[in-house]
Structure formats: structure tokens, C-alpha cells
Amino acid sequence: MARSGRSGQKSSRRSPKRLVLGVFIFAFAALIIAQSAPQIAGVFDPVRTSVGDRLGTGESVSIWSRISGQAAKDARIHELEAEVRDLARYKAAAISMAERLEAYEQILNLMGEPPVRGVTARVTSESEGPFAQTLLANAGRAQGVEEASVAVNEGGLVGRVIQLGQSSSRILLVTDFNSRVPVIGEVSGVHAIMQGGSTGSGTLTDMPERSDFVEGERILTSSEGGAFPRGLVVGEVRKSGNGWRVKYAMSEGSAGYVQLIPPPLISKPIPQPEALPADGAAPAASPTQGARQ
Length: 293
Known about the structure:
This protein has helices at 2-36, 38-56, 63-68, 70-108, 287-292, and strands at residues 119-125, 134-137, 150-152, 157-164, 169-173, 180-185, 191-195, 201-205, 218-221, 233-240, 243-248, 257-261. By secondary structure, the protein is of the alpha+beta class. It has three domains: 18-58, no CATH class; 60-110; 119-261, Rod shape-determining protein MreC, domain 1 (Thrombin, subunit H), CATH 2.40.10.340. The strands form two sheets. The protein has a six-stranded antiparallel barrel with strand order 1-2-5-4-3-12. It has a six-stranded antiparallel beta barrel with strand order 6-7-8-11-10-9. A hairpin with a 5-residue loop joins strand 6 (180-185) and strand 7. The chain starts with a helix and ends with a helix.
């Protein structure tokens, strides 16, 4: 009787464990069936996707991703994607502004800048001698280069032609101490004269007393004096003590070639002759003219 009572107690203790084990086995079998059956798997796909998205958007990064460098690559990819989205917005805004500007110019009948025509030539430099701050270009009158032509490269303004031959020309660089270029700030609109310097930057002089440039803005040619066309990039302005200096833009595009463009010559207006009356008679003198005579 005692043995039968003990065996009944053991069987009663094992029955809950067996029930739990059976439930786990049944759930596992149901999960396998759900993964294998397409119709049943379609019911769990939305739930599984939402749970995976929430788990995947966590800020925690695995140790293996950090060791292998995958985390840095993913961060760089996300950064580049954000930059591409920003650039796409800027591009759309720029296209819209360009179309609007073109429409305004047509409405106002605004005369645009004349088309730039020039000659591309290869240049060589001289490291010593009286012409150390000049360049020799293998193009001259025979190639269509004009007197006092302006030399530019991919970076910006290079200099101005000071000697012209039949098949060559000498260019005085903006880095020469004797070079003077009228410039204007692209953002501030302040006018000044840039004096050349061989230290990699030029000095701005003849500035208005109560005007100042903006740190880091581009400096462009102002076309004052008629020596340089308006809008050529000269460099970037930097504060130096109590003055301003310009880092040359020509050094950023020194590929051995320059474009020689004609100077901005504007023809003087020709006075038109006074129109005669229909009968061909000379116009009558005014009473004041008669009194003076």
C-alpha cells in the first residue's frame, strides 16, 4: 500500500512536466508547419517584418561589426545617402532659380554677357631671371591672340598678356608684385585692388574705409579700368592681421594649359546724323540762335 501511494505521487509530479514538454513540442511543430506552408507563412509575414524592423533599427552595434569595419562602412553609406538627398534638393532649387532668372531676363529684355571666345595654349614657366613671374604660351597673332588678352585656367585668373609675338605670347602672372587687379567681393560687394605677391596670396588695397569683406568669400574681377572682364575668379579672401589677403585660385587648376580670351573692349557709340525734314529744307533756327547771331 505504501509503494502504491509513492508511485501515485511520482506520477502526479511528472504529469505537469510532461504537459509542458508536450506543449513545447506542439508549438515547435506548428512553427515548422508555418514556415513550410506558404498560406500560413503569409499570415505571419507582416508581424515578422515589423518585429525585424524594430529590432534592426536599434542603435546598438555588434562587436563583430566594429571589429570588421562593417559598422563604419554602414555609417558612411548612410552619410553619403543623406548628402545625395541634400544635393538633389539643391539641384532642384538651382534649376528652378535658373529658369526663373531666364524668364525675368526675357521680360526685362536684359542684355547678357557676350560669348567668351579665346585660344587654348600650352604654357611654360621660367624659374629665374627678370621674367620669373611670367609664363610663355605657344600661341600668338597667328593663332588669333589679341593684344592685352587675359589668361585663365581651370582654377581662375592667371594673368594678362604683356608681349605678343607671331606664334608666342608672354603672360604676366597675378602673383607678380607689379600686377594690379581691380576686384570685388562676391558676397560683400566691396571693391578693392589686389596687389600681387609671390607668397601664395595677394594683398587687398584701396578699400573703402567703412566696408569689410566676408571671411572665406570668393574674390572676382570687377572689370573696372577695362583690363579684365567681370566675374573671373581670382581667389578666396582671408583675414591677415589688420588687412586682407587673397589665396590665388589659379594654383588649384594649374594643368599646363591656359585660355587666352580678348580684353573686354566696348565700342564707343557713334552719333547718328540729324534727320532732315521731308521737303529737304534745313531746320529753321531757333529764336535764341537768331538773337545770338
